[in-house]
C-alpha cells in the first residue's frame, strides 16, 4: 500500500545530499550472558535477523514516479531482504574501542539508498574485552534521534532471565511494550490532527516559507527576543561540511557529575554543558582557533504541556530550545560553570515568556536545522545563530537486558549539517552519562581528542567544586 | 574537468537498478610475507589507502544536471575521500572461507552510489588460516570484468622481494607497468576512432536499435546462423532476479583438468565446461528442475585480429561468443565432455564463418547482455537465447606478489541480470583454475552446493578418462 510522506519527512529526504546524510545512529554495547558459547554473537545476529514479521516502519521506502505524479510516497519494499538490513560484522585487530569507533564512523558516513527501507543494524564482534556491539542507523524521515533510541530500548527488559525477546524491528502486538514503534509510526503520517503533528506541520510550513513564521524566526535570531539574544562568533564548526564522519563516544558516572552540581548549586545538565564548554575551549586553543567571544550552544529542552499548548496525548514529546552561552572566554572552570548556569536559567525564563508559536518555531528549529538554515541565510542572517547543538536525552536509570545480554552503554550518533559541523548528544543510562560526538572529519580534525578534554574537565570541575 | 560518458558506459549506468547492480568484483587471497608482524593487515590496508595520487579513472563519478543539459557526464569528485573507497574489514569467527564468501556476497549486493567514484576495495583480515583477502568492486561503466582483473594484476610482481609497489588505484607513470590502467582509461572515451571503440560503438547502436544490426542479432537468435542454432530450454536461472547476491568460489589444479583433456582429446576449456555441465545437472536434479533439453551456455571466446577485423593496437581485446550445448541430458560424464567438445568446435567454426559485423554483434552481446535483453524481448524472442554465461579468462601462469605478499588465488565476481540469474567466470592463475559463481540468492538457492558438485565432477571425469 502506498502512503503519503508527511511534509517534514519529505523535507528530510529532499534536504539530504552526499555531504549531509540525514540518518541518526546508535551504538550499544552488550555484555554476553553467563555461559554464552563461542558462537554467541552469531546466534545473537541470527536472532536479530530471523524475525517472524517486520514492523511496517521498517518495510517501506520512499518512492517517486510518474505514477505518483512526481510526489514522494512511502511504498512497501516488495523484495524486502532482511540480510541487507541486519548484518554481522567484525572488528579488525586489536579490537579496541578505537577500531569500533572507526567502524561506526565509516558506517555512519554512507547514505541510505532510497530504493530500500531506510535502516541498517550491524551486530559487531571482535572487541578484545569480549563485549558485543550493535550499531544501528535509521533515516530521520522515519524517526528522530530520541525516538530511535527509545525504539531500541523498548525491546529491552530489566529481567536478566527473560528470553525470546523481539528484535527492535520485529512486529509486536501493540500491548507488549511496543509503544516506541507505535509512537514512531504515529509520528509519521497516520495521526489526524494532533500535538506532534502540529509541531511538525510548522516545520513544514517554514520549509515552504510562509511570511509570518519566518518573520518570527528571523526576528528572534536578530536578538529581539530574550531566548535568542546571544551573539555566536564564527568558529571552525560553522563551515560547509563534507560527507566524512568521525564519531567518538565515552561515558562518565552520573554520580561524579551530580556531585559537582550539588557542590556548586547547578544542575546535572549545567555540568554536562560545562564539560563540553571546557573541552571545546581546550580543543580550540590547541588549534589556535578559539574566538574571543564565547561560543553559543543550542540546547533542546523539554516543554511542559502548558508551554507547548499541546494536547495531552503526545505533549511530553514537545521540545523547545534554549541558546546557552558556553563561557569559553573564561579561564576558570568554576566561572564557566556559573555563567552557563546563569545563561541556562535566563534562556528558560525567556522560553516561558515566548508565545506558543515562537516556542513551536524553536522546536521546529531544533528538529530541522537543515531545513531552516537556507531560509535563515535568505533572510540575511550571515553569522551563525549558534555554534553547535548539545542535546541531553535522559535514558533508563536501571540495568537493562536483551535476551540475557546486559546493555552496558548506549551512545547516540547524530547529524552534522552545513554550518554545524559538530553535534554533541548525551544520554544517561544505568548511572552513566554517555557522550556521543558526531562531526565532519575534515572540518573537525582529531575529534577524538575532545574525549580526553572532556575527561580533563570533569577532573577540573571536581577540583574547583572541592568534591 | 567534465568529460562525456561514452554511450556504452552510459547504458550500463542507466540499465542499473536495485535488482541489477552493474559492478564487477574480484576476490584475491594473499599469504603474509615471512616475518610479517601482527599488525600486517593494518599496514597493508594503510599502504593501499595512503597512495600519493589517485588515477583519474578512480576519481570521477557520473553526474547529470541542468548544467549538463540532462546528459550523463563524468565529473571529478571534488571531495574525494579515500577512506570511503579503501576499507579495512574483518571476518566474524570462526573465520572460515564460508564467512569470507558471506561477506563478499553482502558487499557485492549493494549498488555503488553515483555521487562518488564507482569503486571500493576492502582489505579483509580474520581468516583463521592467516591468509589476507581483498575484495574489490568496480562499476562496469569504468571497466569490464577482464580489464578489472588485469588492472588488479598489473600492480603485482613476480619478485617476492620487491617493495614500494603501488596500489591498483594509484597513479603511475605510464612506463612502469600501468598498461591496464591506461587501457581501462582508454577504453572509456579518450580514443578517437579505434578498434575497441568500434566494438563498443556497435553495442551503443544496438541500444539505440538501428534496424540492420538488430535484424542480424535476432536472425542469429532465431536459429538462422550456425553459431547460434541452439535451442535453450527454460530453467530456474532464466527468471527475473532480485538484488540479493550469493558468491561461491573454489579452485582446482590446472594439471588435473589438463590431464583429463589429454586423455580424452579435448581442451582445457572443454573440461571446464564439462565440470559446469555436470555440476549443474546434479544441482538441477536435486531441485527436481532439470529440463529435458540440454542447457546452452554462452561462452565468450577470444577473436584473432583477422576475425575481428580490428586494428592491431587493441585487437587482442576483441571477444566473440559461442553457444555451447552443455549436454545436461546425458548421464555419462564422458559422453557429456565429448558432446561439449563437438558443440564448441561447431560453434567456433560457425564463428569463423560469420561476417565481421556478426562477430562484433556477438561481442557486443557478450559485453552487454543487460542492454540487449530488452531489445530481444521486443523482437518477440521469448525463450532465453541461452541459459547462462560461462567465461574462462586466462590469467598469469607464475606466482605473483604484492610487496612480498604472495597472491594465492584470485576469483571473479560477475553480474547476474534479469533472465540470467547465474554467472560462472573462471580464471587461471599460477597452476590453478579458479571458479567464481555469482548468482541471485533467491533465484538460485544453495549456490554453494555447486562447488561440491564441481569437485565431484572433476573426480567423475578423471575416472571416466582413466587418469
Question: SSE layout and pairings?
Answer:
2 copies of one chain form a homodimer.
Chain A: E1 3-4, H1 7-15, E2 23-31, H2 40-49, E3 60-63, E4 73-76, H3 82-85, E5 86-90, H4 97-109, E6 119-125, E7 132-139, H5 145-154, H6 179-190, H7 195-207, H8 211-224, E8 245-253, H9 254-264, H10 268-286, E9 296-302, H11 305-308, E10 319-325, H12 333-352, H13 356-367, H14 369-378, E11 388-393, E12 401-402, E13 405-413, E14 422-429, E15 432-440, H15 449-465
Parallel strand pairs in A: 5-6, 9-11, 11-14
Antiparallel strand pairs in A: 1-4, 2-7, 2-13, 3-4, 6-7, 8-15, 9-10, 12-13, 14-15
Report on the architecture of this protein.
The structure is a homodimer of 467-residue chains. Helices cover 38% and strands 21% of the residues of chain A. With 467 residues, chain A is an alpha+beta fold. Chain A folds into 2 domains: 3-189, Chloramphenicol acetyltransferase-like domain (Chloramphenicol Acetyltransferase, 2-Layer Sandwich); 209-397 and 415-465, 2-Layer Sandwich (Chloramphenicol Acetyltransferase). In chain A, strands 5-6-7-2-13-12 form a 6-stranded mixed sheet, sandwiched between helices. In chain A, strands 8-15-14-11-9-10 form a 6-stranded mixed sheet, sandwiched between helices. In chain A, strand 12 and strand 13 (405-413) form a beta hairpin. In chain A, helix 10 (268-286) crosses helix 15 (449-465). The longest helix of chain A has 20 residues, at 333-352. The termini of chain A are far apart. The relative contact order of chain A is 0.17.
Amino acid at each position: 500500500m502506498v502512503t503519503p510522506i508527511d511534509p517534514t519527512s519529505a523535507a528530510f529526504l529532499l534536504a539530504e545530499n552526499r555531504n549531509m546524510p540525514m540518518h541518526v545512529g546508535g551504538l550499544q554495547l552488550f555484555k554476553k550472558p553467563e555461559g554464552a558459547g563461542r558462537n554467541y554473537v552469531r546466534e545473537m545476529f541470527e536472532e536479530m535477523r530471523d524475525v517472524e514479521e517486520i514492523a511496517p516502519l521498517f518495510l517501506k521506502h520512499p518512492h517517486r514516479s510518474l505514477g505518483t505524479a512526481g510526489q514522494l510516497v512511502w511504498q512497501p519494499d516488495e523484495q524486502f531482504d532482511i540480510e541487507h538490513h541486519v548484518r554481522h560484522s567484525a572488528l579488525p585487530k586489536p579490537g579496541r574501542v578505537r577500531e569500533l569507533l572507526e567502524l561506526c564512523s565509516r558506517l555512519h558516513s554512507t547514505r541510505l539508498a532510497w530504493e530500500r527501507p531506510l535502516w541498517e543494524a550491524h551486530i559487531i564482534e571482535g572487541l578484545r574485552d569480549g563485549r558485543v556491539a550493535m550499531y544501528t542507523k535509521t533515516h530521520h524521515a522515519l524517526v528522530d534521534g530520541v525516538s530511535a533510541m527509545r525504539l531500541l530500548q523498548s525491546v529491552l527488559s530489566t529481567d536478566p532471565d527473560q528470553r525470546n525477546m523481539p528484535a527492535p524491528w520485529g512486529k509486536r502486538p501493540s500491548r507488549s511494550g511496543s509503544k516506541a514503534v507505535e509512537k514512531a509510526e504515529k509520528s509519521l503520517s497516520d495521526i489526524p490532527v494532533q500535538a506532534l503533528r502540529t509541531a511538525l506541520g510548522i516545520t513544514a510550513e517554514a520549509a515552504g516559507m510562509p511570511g509570518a513564521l519566518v518573520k518570527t524566526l528571523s526576528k528572534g535570531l536578530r536578538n529581539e527576543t530574550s531566548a535568542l539574544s546571544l551573539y555566536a562568533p564564527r568558529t571552525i564548526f560553522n563551515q560547509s561540511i563534507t560527507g566524512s564522519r568521525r564519531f567518538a563516544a565515552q561515558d562518565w558516572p552520573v554520580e561524579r557529575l551530580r556531585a559537582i552540581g550539588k557542590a556548586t548549586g547547578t544542575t546535572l545538565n549545567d555540568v554536562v554543558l560545562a564539560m563540553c564548554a571546557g573541552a571545546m575551549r581546550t580543543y580550540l586553543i590547541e588549534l589556535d582557533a578559539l574566538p574571543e567571544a564565547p561560543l553559543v550552544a543550542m540546547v533542546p529542552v523539554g516543554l511542559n504541556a502548558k508551554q507547548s499548548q499541546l494536547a495531552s496525548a503526545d505533549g511530553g514529546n514537545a521540545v523547545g530550545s534554549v541558546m546557552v552561552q558556553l563561557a569559553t572566554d573564561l579561564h576558570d572552570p568554576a566561572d564557566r560553570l556559573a555563567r552557563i548556569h546563569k545563561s541556562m536559567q535566563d534562556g528558560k525564563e525567556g522560553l516561558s515568556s515566548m508565545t506558543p508559536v515562537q516556542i513551536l518555531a524553536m522546536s521546529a528549529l531544533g528538529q530541522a536545522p537543515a531545513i531552516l538554515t537556507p531560509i535563515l541565510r535568505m533572510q540575511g542572517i550571515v553569522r551563525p545563530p549558534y555554534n553547535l547543538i548539545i542535546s541531553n536525552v535522559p535514558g533508563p536509570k536501571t540495568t537493562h537486558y536483551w535476551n540475557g545480554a546486559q546493555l552496558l552503554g548506549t551512545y547516540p550518533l547524530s547529524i552534522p549539517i552545513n554550518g554545524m559541523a559538530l553535534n554533541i548528544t548525551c544520554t544517561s543510562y544505568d548511572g552513566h552519562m554517555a557522550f556521543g560526538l558526531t562531526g565532519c572529519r575534515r572540518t573537525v580534525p582529531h575529534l577524538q581528542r575532545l574525549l580526553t578534554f572532556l575527561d580533563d574537565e570533569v577532573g577540573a570541575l571536581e577540583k574547583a567544586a572541592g568534591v
